[in-house]
């Protein structure tokens, strides 16, 4: 029968696929109806039935590591053995109570890992694209693939993601996949709840990670690099030769510098209040640096650009003061791109007449489009155009996640910290 297949390899691929589908079906047929039994009855060969995850309980309370039942994926979802998860400011906004989110929840939203299982009734094409054992990277905006925005390719605006995940802490059937081992109680998911030994991710949020890229460093592709790319590509539409300023050189701001360099920006101006971050910025492509504690940001940007201002200024802090500086730093017709989240209700000011007469564009940008953009980011990293190595400033162990967030909160992390999970 092998002669029917173009090669032995394609025969093997199909065989593996059929085996995987058979096992999914078997599990489904033996499944039981009640929710508690459903999760505790989920067993996979060579996979423990329980896992640990980092839980946020309520604002200002310390994170804790808790035991959970192995999370069970549903149709179109993939169970991943998490290898690494980045430490991002967005999680901090939730932990500090700046942005309301369902709690208790498992935080962490930029991950890499190994595919362990697929939900029953998952499309054959998905199983084929991400076979069990394959290496993947996951984006924090997990597109449903079916809403009005997703079908237009605007996955960064996915209705289901905002309506279910961001508003309720669940996946798109309105339910979490995380249940405590001790009492079976549900715990919500910030994106996929990535600071866990296993996580469930909608397949639309995944891209294949080649063997040449390390698990740990590549985790940042799913938020820091993803967000920077979305800002530069979709919001700013950067062209070669553009002058760009980035205000706030944290994990995402520093990724913006590298993406700006990749897009051929001429002047790349890094603005921050910490000299160590500015020094690091030079490695990532900054042609100029400004310490906002020592110099006037807008004056200095004008000086560097011959009095004109930059084509594109990016605000990565979410502060009213830097919001205003960003709009004032762009040249006539320029674009002020806002990517920094602020506490809910925060309001920014803008010089109205200048905005009108000089045609300043203020553009909000959140993440990027997983299916079209994430594979491109993998390529940028694979070819070394984007250096993951330079973007990572700290690696820590699973038990050290809470301490890493404390350090991030206190400005002690230059660049990005990544938690290595297994
Ligand atoms: Zn993030
Ligand atoms: Zn959608």
From TrEMBL:
This protein's UniProt keywords = Metal-binding, NAD, Oxidoreductase, Zinc
Name its co-factor(s): Zn(2+)
Q: Describe the location of the Enoyl reductase (ER) domain by residue ranges.
A: 61-419
GO biological process assignments: response to alcohol
Tagged with keyword NAD? yes
Q: GO MF terms on file?
A: metal ion binding; oxidoreductase activity
Q: Provide the Gene Ontology terms for cellular component.
A: mitochondrion
Question: Which InterPro entries does the annotation name?
Answer: ADH-like_C, ADH-like_N, ER, GroES-like_sf, NAD(P)-bd_dom_sf
Q: Name one Pfam family in it.
A: ADH_zinc_N
The Swiss-Prot or TrEMBL record describes its family as follows:
Belongs to the zinc-containing alcohol dehydrogenase family.
Protein name in the entry? Enoyl reductase (ER) domain-containing protein
From which organism does this entry originate?
Answer: Amborella trichopoda
């Amino acid at each position: 029968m092998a002669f029917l297949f173009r090669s032995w390899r394609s025969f093997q691929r199909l065989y593996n696929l059929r085996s995987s589908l058979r096992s999914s079906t078997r599990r489904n047929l033996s499944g039981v109806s009640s929710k508690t039994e459903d999760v505790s009855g989920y067993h996979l060969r060579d996979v423990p039935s329980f896992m640990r995850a980092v839980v946020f309980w309520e604002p200002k309370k310390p994170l804790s590591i808790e035991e959970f039942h192995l999370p069970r994926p549903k149709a179109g979802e993939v169970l991943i053995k998490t290898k690494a998860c980045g430490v991002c400011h967005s999680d901090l906004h939730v932990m500090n109570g700046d942005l309301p989110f369902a709690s208790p929840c498992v935080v962490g939203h930029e991950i890499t890992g190994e595919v362990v299982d697929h939900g029953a009734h998952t499309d054959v094409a998905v199983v084929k694209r991400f076979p069990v054992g394959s290496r993947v990277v996951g984006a924090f905006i997990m597109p449903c693939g079916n809403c009005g925005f997703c079908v237009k390719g605007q996955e960064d605006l996915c209705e289901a993601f905002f309506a279910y995940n961001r508003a309720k802490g669940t996946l798109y059937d309105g339910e979490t996949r995380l249940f405590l081992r001790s009492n079976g109680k549900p715990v919500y998911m910030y994106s996929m709840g990535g600071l866990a030994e296993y996580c469930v991710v909608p397949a639309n949020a995944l891209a294949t990670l080649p063997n040449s890229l390390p698990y740990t460093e590549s985790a940042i592709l799913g938020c820091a690099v993803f967000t920077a790319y979305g800002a530069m590509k979709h919001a700013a539409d950067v062209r070669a030769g553009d002058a760009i300023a980035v205000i706030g050189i944290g994990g995402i701001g520093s990724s913006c510098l590298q993406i700006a360099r990749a897009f051929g920006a001429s002047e790349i101006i890094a603005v921050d209040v910490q000299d160590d971050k500015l020094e690091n910025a030079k490695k990532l492509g900054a042609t100029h640096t400004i310490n906002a504690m020592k110099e006037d940001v807008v004056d200095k940007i004008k000086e560097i650009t011959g009095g004109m201002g930059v084509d594109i200024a990016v605000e990565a802090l979410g502060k009213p003061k830097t919001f205003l500086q960003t709009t004032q730093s762009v040249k006539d017709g320029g674009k002020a791109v806002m990517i920094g989240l602020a506490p809910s209700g925060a309001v920014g000011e803008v010089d109205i007449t200048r905005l009108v007469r000089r045609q300043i564009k203020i553009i909000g940008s959140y993440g990027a489009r997983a299916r079209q953009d994430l594979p491109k980011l993998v390529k940028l990293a694979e070819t070394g155009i984007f250096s993951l190595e330079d973007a990572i400033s700290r690696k820590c162990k699973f038990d050290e996640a809470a301490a890493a967030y404390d350090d991030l909160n206190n400005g002690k992390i230059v660049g990005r910290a990544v938690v290595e999970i297994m």
